[in-house]
Amino acid sequence: MAAALGGLTRLLLAAAAVVAVVLLVLNDDGGEPSAFRSLPPSVPVQVVVPSLGVEAGIDPVAVSADRVLDPPEDVDRVGWWDASAEPGADAGQTVLTGHAVHTGGGVLDRLPAVRPGARVDLRTDEGLMRYRVTDVETLGRDEVAARTEELFGQDRGDGRLVLVSCTEWDGAVYRSNVVVTARPLGEPRPAARL
What we know:
By secondary structure, the protein is α+β, with helices and mostly antiparallel strands. It has helices at 2-26, 141-146, 148-152, and strands at residues 44-49, 54-61, 78-81, 94-98, 119-124, 127-140, 161-169, 174-184.
């Protein structure tokens, strides 16, 4: 009987070790805690996309009178739409935009190459928010216009991150936009509780 219990104990310990290894493999966050959304909402100051080699400062930007969200003039910086959610908010979505330059040198030149599962970090004065890319879409201008509310609207309640830039240079203009969405990691912390 004792030998059977000893064998069962070893089997349970081995199973627990396998589960722990699987969880470590699935948690590809560099061993850091997952409470990235537990920060109070705050203005983003830096974006980092390790898989693309992007590390850029962020400036607030607004939608123009003709309903266009233009990135900052500096091609090395990313714009945060100041009417979108701050990272850490449990409502709305954080919208960032940056330049693609057909000759190279734009901060988001390589955005179409990002893949689902990639990590995106936003630094705020409150700390670090971490996101995981879920979708990468290339959309024509008409499709972006038709889906504006879905893609960038602030009535969504999941606090996701949206990155947008131009793509498909045809020799004269960019014909499309790449729209990357990412989900926040950790649990939301509503501003009302701060």
